[in-house]
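Bumping my old thread because nobody answered last time. Still need a sequence for this structure:
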């Protein structure tokens, strides 16, 4: 599947589609999301990513439409590895 780099690296198409973390942080794009993931406490991360749900996966898949990154994150539960995978994907997309 061809990814729309501008869509993945740009802001969410509508303000209401931004990602709202449980601590009140709002991420409009993948850069803000990865920063929020890196800086939030473990409880906030686990609220969004656990065995029952993965809110970040859903947002990346449905709002940013990056199937490749979403698949990498679907079964990831470690906060640092999660952020590293996003940073790696950002670098890949910035080269395109």
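Sorry it took so long. Here it is:
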């Amino acid at each position: 599947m061809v990814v729309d780099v501008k869509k993945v690296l740009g802001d969410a198409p509508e303000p209401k589609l931004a990602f709202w973390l449980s601590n009140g942080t709002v991420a409009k794009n993948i850069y803000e999301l990865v920063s929020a993931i890196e800086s939030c406490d473990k409880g906030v991360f686990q609220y969004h990513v656990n065995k029952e749900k993965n809110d970040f996966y859903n947002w990346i898949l449905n709002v940013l439409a990056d199937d490749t990154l979403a698949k990498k994150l679907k079964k990831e539960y470690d906060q640092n590895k999660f952020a590293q995978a996003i940073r790696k994907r950002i670098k890949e997309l910035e080269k395109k």
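The radius of gyration is 12 Å. Let me know if any region looks off to you.
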